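Closing statement on the magnesium ion sub-project.
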Amino acid sequence: MKLVFLGPPGAGKGTLAVLVSQEYTIPHISTGEIFRTAIREKTPLGLKVQAVIDAGQLVGDDITIQLVKERLTQEDAKNGFILDGFPRTIPQAEALGEIITIDSAINFDINDTLVVERLSGRRVCKTCNKNYHITFMPPKEEGICDKCGSELIVREDDKIEAITKRLEVYRTQTEPLINFYDSKKMLTNIDASAVSGIVFEAFCKLFPKI
Ligand code: AP5
Ligand code: MG
């Protein structure tokens, strides 16, 4: 299964991708996570993109397309993948179409009020990247990752000014991809406003395991 997860920031793309990746044994490829790891490790890529990401803007198409192109040639992506957060612009979608044919683009349907609530309450493990929400998906012990015991932090781009910027960027640059994939009969809408177990159940019904 070759999937694109499309939707506004905070729609729950990463959360669902973790569950789908386990259930269907396909890799979860998040461009955002790749960039954040590069920033944490202070690689040349990380140093280049940090300011752009922290401000809630998009990294350039050339860098991002090249990164995804290389990732998709890896062995584990041969039988399918979830692209979470890519493509995010029309040029990225066109470039992806030249690399590979996807089965579906899943559009996460959710309103802005819920998005802001989810992003402002998100906490992320600073070591293993696992995501939590202070109300909807709290860790067992406040401020501590269940999986690895490290400290949970607030993503720099989850501060309110950056959230507002990311929503604006989404509207102008990424939302047009809904029509792009719809016109190619490749779009699947999913109601992303429910709790994550219900969103996962809805996904499994739409894409039964063979
Ligand atoms: P990226 O990491 O992709 O961020 P995003 O799209 O803004 O999405 P998020 O990760 O914030 O949200 P999500 O939909 O994954 O939600 P989540 O599951 O975490 O990109 C970051 C940055 O990198 C971009 O701004 C850009 O600068 C750069 N970048 C990345 N890709 C790029 C590209 N292709 N081109 C250019 N630049 C690129 O959930 C959010 C919260 O809600 C969590 O706390 C979670 O616990 C909670 N939650 C999730 N689902 C539910 C639910 N069903 N019910 C209740 N709570 C829920
Ligand atoms: Mg994410």
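The radius of gyration is 16 Å. With this model delivered, the sub-project is considered complete and its resources will be redirected to Aim 3.
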